[in-house]
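Q: For a teaching session next week I want to show students how multiple molecules come together into a single three-dimensional assembly. I've collected the sequence lines for a complex. Could you give me the predicted structure tokens for the whole thing so I can convert them for display?
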Amino acid sequence: MLPPRRWRLAVEMTSAIAFDAVNLWFHAQDGSALQTLRDFNMQVGRGEFVALVGPTGCGKSTTLNLITGLLRPSSGSVRLFGETVTGIDPRVGFVFQADALFPWRNVIDNVVLGPMYRGAEKSAAYVQAQRWLEIVGLAKFARHYPHQLSGGMRKRVALAQTFINKPEILLMDEPFSALDVQTRGLMQDELLELWSSTGASVVFVTHDLEEAIALADRVYVLTAGPATVKSSYVIDLPRPRVTTEIRYDPRFIEISRQIWHDLRDEVQKSPVAMVAANV
Amino acid sequence: MLGLQVLILVGGLGGWEMLSRLEWLDPFFFSMPSMIAARLATWFFNGTAQGSIWFQIWVTVEEALAGFLAGASAGVVAGIVLGRNRLAADVLSVYILIANAIPRIVLAPIFVMSLGLGMASKIAVAFVMVFFVVFANAFQGVREADRNIVAHAQILGASPWQITRTVIIPSALSWIFASLHVSFGFAIVGAVVGELLGARYGIGQMIATAQGNFDAAGVFAGMIVLVAVALLADLTMTLIERRLARWRPPSAHEMQTQAGRS
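A: Of course. Below is the structure for the complete assembly, covering every listed component.
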């Protein structure tokens, strides 16, 4: 039997991630405090792909740490599916900027970690891991160690490692920034394909505006620190997209010009840019 | 390369032999290679005053090994427990600092007095020699574990114990191994010093006896046996380490030697 329609609607309306008037200060040992987030409001719908762009060091990654529960807001609330975040939520998956593979484990032993941590039976976990390696095209490299792989291959392992847990919320912190341009394009397409089959809600942090537009349903532009949402743009480019080709689409160029206008002011305000200007 | 190395050995030993034969060096105090070789031959073929040389070596190795295994395991456990437990580490840090400042070898007389001339006192000396080195390294290794990987494991769903087992211990392992390498040498030093101070068997005891008889050849021969034991131990350690650290990329130095060989 279905719950009453009104109630069902309310559940459906709850967004996957909601930041409500979040402020965050870091307190240094000498008593001074640094504000990283100021009155930060953001909603991520279920199955929505959101990208955050903003000047370097503005606090983009901090928002991700608030979602994982590794950080707590000084005031305001962060909610996942309507519940306030109190710790690490098992529905969350995270792809790091730096290499966070376990260097002492081979590829398949890395991928199998999530299910093993969560108490899966060993043989079942390995079957699952093998399947994910096939999906990301690394079945032949199951016994290789991370240092024997290229940067792009290591990212694929990281994706398999994250997707095997079937995250409903996927957080990505500049995951492809260390890759060369060609590999980055391939990985972006691969990510979109993996994502489209899961229906996860994604928060993708990047400083690359084109990457944000090519991937996301919605782009949030953040101000220079303390970060707050300056503006948000709905990206109405049709899916499925091929990121390497969509850049030449006239609509893409139009959106990108519009957002860049907004972003440029913030980039110029950021301390890094000011140092550069003084030099 | 090898030729030059052999040349140095031959030159050094030959020079020593000649200086002693010409009595520029007093053979009574400095002996000479031929006498030392003769002594080693006697020991190995006819045995020593206390019995077979192999038994003496085994006694020393057994003491060193027992002290090493006990000291290393205690050091690893203590290092990991304290490394993972901020409060315990902060509370105990003062005492660790003090304990670490004591030159461990001066504890040997106390152990020989309290535990007697048997093996127990030597094992105890080897234990304290090993424990602090391994402990300090294990502790540091835990603290140096990559925060990114720890956070990653947490998000993948690891419990604190799973993090210790799958992240902390493997990443501390290279630190621990570096310390094991050095500390096995320390274990041998500990066992030998214990024997020098009073024992019934062992290489250290043989050296002490030779010293008591003003028998320089015996002292040097004992030293050579010790060197051989220490080198063998070091080699074993390297082999074990290489097996356990297969995941690591070869260091620049290793790559060079490999390139040099091929």
